[in-house]
Amino acid sequence: MSLLVKGGTVVGPTGTRVADVLVEGEKIVAVLDPSFTPTITANEVIDASGKYVIPGGIDAHTHMEMPFGGTSASDTFDTGTRAAAYGGTTTIIDFAIQRTGEVVQDGLAAWRAKTEGECHIDYAFHMILGGVDTDALKAMDQLVADEGITSFKLFMAYPGVFYSDDGQILRAMQTARANGAMIMMHAENGIAIDVLVQQALERGETDPIYHGITRPAALEAEATNRAIALAEVAQDCPLYIVHLSASQALAKVAEARDAGRNVFAETCPQYLYLTLEDQLGAPGFEGAKWVCSTPLRSKHESHARDLWKGLRSNDLAIVSTDHCPFCMKDQKEMGIGDFSKIPNGIGGVEHRVDLIFQGVVDGHLSLERWVETIATTPARMFGLYPQKGIVQPGSDADLVIYDPNGTTRIGVETHHMNMDYSAYEGVEIQGRVGTVISRGEVIVADGNYHGRKGRGKFLKRGLSSYLM
Ligand code: URP
Ligand code: ZN
Ligand code: ZN
C-alpha cells in the first residue's frame, strides 16, 4: 500500500520546504521536490498544499491509568492514546511503576499487561523507581540491556510514596552513568513541602490554591540544583528534569548546561499558559482542576516568559504534557476541605501540538523549533530517533498534516480525553490538526477517527542520542 502526501510544506528541525512525501507500507521512502513526482503513482494521494507536514508528535511524559492518591488517572491506555491521536501525537512514552518493596520487573510486567491490545498509537515506557535498593539497581541494568527501557524517573517529592533520598538518588545515578540510561527527576524538596502543607492545614488554609503556595519555586530550584550536584558527583550522569515550572529552576539548568553538563529539561503547556492566580486560585473548589506538581506559578513573576525563552535557547529541550487526568467528580473532589488530598495531575495529551503551535503564532517559537520540541528532540532524547521524530526516508510514516488556516476551540464538549472538564476550556488555537498518519495508516482525517485500539506497537528504545 502506497500513499503520497502531496504539495505540503514539510517542517523539520533544520528547515521547511515544499515537498511530496512518499510512503510505502509503514515507512517513508522518499521526500521529493514536487517537480519529480508527476510520474509517481500511489494507491492514495492526500493533497497537503497550504498545510504543514510534520513528524507525528511524541509526548515523552504521560501517565495513563496511573494509580495516585487513592485513585487512578482517568484516561486508560485506550482512551488516552485515542485522544492523543486526535491531537496529532503518534507516540507516547508512559511510566511503568515500581512501588516501594516491589520487584522492578514485576512493575514493568504489570504495565506491559495494562497496555497489551489497548493502544491506538505506538508507545514506550520509562520506569519509575519507587524503591531504590540493590535489586532495583541490578534491574536497571537488565531493563536497559534487554527491555528497551533506558530512562528511570526518581522523585525528590512525595515522601512515603515515591520519594528517594539523596543516597538512593546517587546510587541510581551511578548505575545510570555506567549503563548509559537517563535519570529523570521530579525535582521538588518533598520533605520541606510536607512541613509547609501541614502548617497550612493547621491554619485552616484548605483551598486548592494552597497546593501551589506550599510548593514554592525556591523548593523546586533547590531540588533541581541538588539533582544537578548529585549527577555531577555521579561522573556527569545524564539528568533530565521533568515538568520544570519555575524560572529559578530553569536558571539552575541553564547554569549547568553552560558548564557543558549532561543536563536537560522539559516543560509542559500548563506552565506556559496557566497561572496560580487565574486557575489554581479560581473561586471555591474550582481550582482543584489545576492541582498538579510542580504547581502552576504566579502570573506576577516572570515564569512563563522565561520558559518560552528557555524553549528558544534549548535550556528547555522538550514540551511534554505530564498528562495525568482526574475527573472533578469522585476524584478531585476527594480533596474538598483538604487540598493535600486532591489527586495531582492535569490532562492535556490531546492539545500539546496545538498549544505549542499557538506559541509559533504568538511569536515565541519558530516553526522548526515547534517541531523540534514536540517531536524530534523527544525522539533523540529517548532513543527513538530516527525511527520516529523526523520526516525522512527510512523513518516510520508518522505524519501530521497541520492546517495553519484552521482553528481549534478547546473544551470538554469536543475533547476526547476521559475527563469531565478541560484544563484549557475556551482556549482558541489559530491552527488545526487535519490528518494524522501512524505508520502509514490514516487514523484521523478532518476530525473523524479511523484508527483502532490495539494497533499501537510497543517500542523498545535505545540510549539517548545526546549522551556524552
Ligand atoms: O501532578 C503531577 N505531575 N502528577 C503526575 C505525577 C508526576 O509527578 O509526574
Ligand atoms: Zn513528577
Ligand atoms: Zn509526571
UniProtKB/TrEMBL annotation:
N6-carboxylysine modified-residue sites? 153
**What are the record's GO terms for cellular component?**
cytosol
One GO term in the molecular function aspect is: dihydropyrimidinase activity
- Which NCBIfam families does the protein's record reference? D-hydantoinase
Domain Amidohydrolase-related residues, every copy: 52-442
- The organism's place on the tree of life at top rank: Bacteria
Q: Which InterPro entries does this one have?
A: Amidohydro-rel (IPR006680), Hydantoinase/dihydroPyrase (IPR011778), Metal-dep_hydrolase_composite (IPR011059), Metal_Hydrolase (IPR032466), Metallo-dep_Hydrolases_sf (IPR050378)
Q: Which UniProt keywords apply?
A: Hydrolase, Metal-binding
Instruction: Report the top EC class in one word.
Output: hydrolase
In the UniProt record, what gene is named as encoding this protein?
hydA
Per its UniProt record, what Pfam families does this chain match? Answer: Amidohydro_1
The record's EC number reads: 3.5.2.2
Q: Which family does it belong to?
A: Belongs to the metallo-dependent hydrolases superfamily. Hydantoinase/dihydropyrimidinase family.
Species source reads Kribbella jiaozuonensis
Per the entry, which co-factors are needed?
Zn(2+)
Q: What is known about its processing and modification?
A: Carbamylation allows a single lysine to coordinate two divalent metal cations.
- Name the record gives this protein: Dihydropyrimidinase
Name the CDD domains for this protein: D-HYD (cd01314)
Keyword Hydrolase tagged: yes
